[in-house]
User: Fold this.
Amino acid sequence: MTEESRIMSDSEYNITKQLTKELEFLWNVDGYIKDAEEEGNQECAKLFREIKEDEERHAKKLKDLLLKK
Ligand SMILES: [Fe+2]
Assistant:
């Protein structure tokens, strides 16, 4: 495959792959928070809420970078 015929560059692929990981986590994290709350583990629920905020920020940055190309 020539460079011109490639669907995406290695960097575009890497961004896409990482964005997918972030989105999969975000799809599941509310369930993780619910599980922690049902177990009375507020420390765990709080940590997953913090990670959720971080991952939302990362996902937005990855999406913006991908769409900028
Ligand atoms: Fe992340």
About this structure: Residues 10-68 form one domain. The chain has one domain: 10-68. The pocket of fe (ii) ion is lined by residues 22, 55, 58 (CB under 6 Å). The first helix runs from residue 10 to 38.
